[in-house]
Design a protein that fits this description.
A 9-stranded mixed beta sheet has the order 1-2-3-5-4-6-7-8-9, with helices on both faces. Strand 2 (18-29) and strand 3 form a beta hairpin. The chain is globular. The protein has helices at residues 69-79, 98-112, 114-117, 131-141, 173-179, 183-190, 198-203, 231-242, 265-281, and strands at residues 3-4, 18-29, 32-41, 49-55, 82-87, 119-129, 163-167, 217-222, 247-252. The protein is an alpha/beta fold and 289 residues long.
Length: 289
């Protein structure tokens, strides 16, 4: 396994056939370096390969890319994915739309690597958990809106996702307001309360933005999520289907918010994601799991 790493970062545990680069710069916004962790197979597949962009959770104000190291390493090893886990600006540093702009910049950067890394630019999946699930859905529903693109770089490439896999994501800010959940986090992320900035809560409710061009989605959610109701995933899938977009929902009985971070649920969820990716992208394994 060839590695590059920042001296303060420990390397993730991955199989020997996976190469890892930590803190790879994917963009620069006003002098601020934007970084991601990159996972690739040691031997590049002969055919153009899929890519996946992971966006971590943490209520838009915390968290980091290590949340999806396990998933990235697995998909790189078994299917040859070019997998990245993204470090985007948190709300303590910059409010919306910074996190969305960074996430879109990461997708553009992946496509900019298509020739060098033998990536199929038409098979790019975006996935994330909680706040990362919200950003995933926003990428899916804001294609072509210039204000959300930012100035991080690689402007000549598309920031859309061909597939999305949001995990316990927030798709309806008004549902959170009604339930009194994540109020402080939303205020910090958005810049104001729902009373003072109702238009922003609409703007950030991706369930209101679904069109027939929104990419297919697999939505994963625990039924005992007291932070973000699983009904949000059901409603988002219903909105997709109403526009003729393929959508699947997998509910996990009795599971709380962010249940997928720990074993055995982490592997269970990963295999459900794998099934969706294989079916939608027509994948074949390059090695046994």
């Amino acid at each position: 396994m060839r590695t590059e790493q920042h001296p303060e970062r420990s390397m993730p545990e991955v199989s020997d056939d996976v190469e890892v680069t930590l803190e790879k710069v994917y963009g620069i916004d006003n002098g601020r370096e934007l970084m991601c962790d990159v996972f690739t197979p040691g031997v590049q597949p002969s055919q153009p390969r899929p890519a996946i962009v992971f966006l971590h959770g943490g209520s838009w104000l915390s968290g980091g890319p290590s949340q999806f190291h396990f998933h990235s390493g697995y998909l790189a090893s078994k299917y040859g994915f070019f997998a990245i886990s993204v470090d985007y600006r948190l709300s303590g540093e910059a409010q919306f739309p910074a996190a969305l702009q960074d996430s879109k910049c990461a997708v553009r950067w992946v496509r900019s690597q298509a020739e060098e890394q033998n990536i199929d630019p038409n098979r790019v999946c975006v996935s994330g958990g909680s706040a990362g699930g919200h950003l995933t859905s926003m990428i899916a529903t804001t294609a072509g809106i210039e204000d959300y693109e930012g100035s991080g770089g690689n402007d000549g490439f598309s920031s859309h996702g061909d597939l999305t896999i949001p995990i316990n994501g927030e798709f309806d800010m008004w549902d959170l307001v009604e339930k009194g959940s994540l109020i402080d986090a939303m205020v910090q992320f958005i810049g104001g309360t729902s009373e003072k900035m109702p238009e922003k809560y609409d703007e950030l409710s991706s369930v209101q933005r679904v069109t027939h061009e929104t990419p297919p989605a697999l939505l994963l959610h625990g039924t005992e999520d007291r932070c973000v109701s699983h009904e949000q995933s059901i409603a988002y899938a219903k909105a997709l289907k109403a526009k003729g977009v393929h959508a699947e929902v997998e509910l996990y009985e009795g599971k709380p918010h962010a249940w997928f971070n720990n074993e055995p649920d982490r592997t269970i969820v990963l295999h459900r994601m794998e099934k969706f990716l294989v079916e939608q992208f027509g994948l074949s394994a390059i090695r046994d799991s």
